Amino acid sequence: MYFNDAFLPNFVVDTQKSEKITSQFVTFFIDPGCGPCIIKSGIETPFPELKTGGINMFEFLIKKLKAHPRKIVFTEGTDPRILEASARLLSGNFLKPVLVGNPDEIAAAAEDIGFNIRGAEIIDPENFDGMDEMVDEMVALRKGKMTADECRAALKKSNYFGTMLVKMGKADCLLGGATYSTADTVRPALQLIKTKPGNKIVSSCFIMVRPAASGENEVLAMADCAINIKPNEDELVEICKETVSCAKIFGVDPKVAFLSYSTLGSGKGEDVDKMRNACEKAKALMPDTPIGGEFQFDAAVSPVVAKTKHITSSVGGHANTFIFPDINAGNIGYKIAQRLGSFDAYGPILLGLNAPINDLSRGCNAQEVYSMAIITAALA
Fold it and tell me: What is the pTM for the complete model shown?
């Protein structure tokens, strides 16, 4: 996960703090580098505006969640970063944390860093009344690939236990991986949550944001930058479909470009053919979505270049949703945009599952956990 330090919603919150005020609290809530903040009965966070369509993007997502409150599982309930983010979420009253772990250990960890997590639901795999039912359901889901004993042992692990809480409807979504690998987040999701009907793969996208001259923010979607190494034509179409749906959640009106080193046949090769064919299939599948390609990147984003190359589609020169030919291009592309283009990158956001399951970087901070929790719940 890659974020600038200061991207959080700009709204007044109840701090949910106990009487113990810590340096971490001051750092988390009041960042001198972010501009002035107003201290009232809570704190108005001084984070930069992140607008799309004239509204702060996170305010947009929070408004959605307030209308339809969700519950999110955090698989690492004692982690200080999770506890800080949970305290913030509780104060907003739009997303309820479900912390996996021993209640006494979680309470002690929260007290140690001075965060009030009253109102959070805490569920201990070692003392869960519904464990037998959960084991039976997991055995059925694994379809003979795991015995009851093997399932019971797996459910002692927070990643499997948390994923089953979502599968059984006890929570709407999950965010994990602050202390374990991406594979340990994705594997239980594939085995238990599984892909949506009609989907064959899990993919990912990044939402890219930077200030625009208009005063609003430029918001782009890029896929797949993290999961599928070398997707084929049909997989690219599926990636496109899921990315379009995700982009709309973030207020983006998708104009999709299938990217290549060729623009409408200017180059030759198997990879060019793959992107051209995938683009045509995507157009047929989503006739109401502006989709163009295959395009070189400059032809996709520059009206001048698009005109020079005689591109007549509405996408040429105006694309905001980008489908890369493979993970090499995607991963390099979003990081170039982040590091040289001053975009902030939110993700990877996992797509194609029956319920939102997202992964954290092991190097994440509490702000990143908070932001990704809102994003994850907004997908539910």
Answer: 0.78
